[in-house]
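Hi F.,

I've been meaning to write this up properly since the lab meeting, where we talked about keeping a consistent format for the predictions we share between groups. The idea is simple: the sequence comes first, exactly as it goes in, then the structure tokens exactly as they come out, then a line or two of notes. No screenshots and no reformatting. I'm using this chain as the first example so we have something concrete to point to.
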Amino acid sequence: MKCRLQKILSSRGVASRRTAEKWIADGRVTVNGTPAEIGASADPENDVICVDGIRLPCLEKRVVIALNKPRGYVTTMHDEKGRKTVAQLVSSCGYHVYPVGRLDMESDGLLLLTNDGELANRLCHPSGEKTKIYRVRVQGYSDALGERLTEPMTIDGYALRPVRVRPVETGGDEAVLEFELTEGRNRQIRKMCEQCGLRVRTLTRIQYAGVALGQLQKGCWRFLSDEEVVGLAGSGMKNE
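Output, unedited:
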């Protein structure tokens, strides 16, 4: 059955849809020997689809990896600046995976990676409202500023959805705060804290869409169970 090329590339774990569209525009994708165009469709069972002259791999089993990303690693599989990437940390997994969403270079904690582009799109789409929980150590804290973080706030001209914030530890002007949010604007927590006059010392994601970081050590990863994968995408989705 025919479907859009970018969807096919994404489902084969080769690239995200956005990256696949760029490859098509750059002329790197061919269908039966002919360069493909944006918007083109193909039948993955009967057509010969190649990227840079290499035929697409067979459909792999859907896998999702939970990685405890250390600080200093960028959330990408290739970095033209030569920085350390999360790809180096999961190179032994045996699958072509790529990150679900982002976790900035200065932050650490739970990062999901998958070879299923459709699942990644579902998890990242704003309508999904997947809950993310972070532990953030800040300096300059007071109860009044803690309350202000939960009030309506506008960042970069965008009105943020309500965020739950609760203190986990307090001492002097430092505190460890737990942020629970259902959207992930670019550097949202850091910008919220900056707007309130708080300095972020460390920022760790401890949960994503019900998957917990748990005792996973920094730089280590694990495969999610079939039950966890089904839970991520919804009860109607089976692991193939």
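Notes:
Confidence is low (pLDDT under 50) at residues 235-240.
The helical segments are 5-11, 17-25, 86-89, 117-124, 143-149, 188-195, 226-233.

If this format works for you, I'll send the rest the same way.

G.
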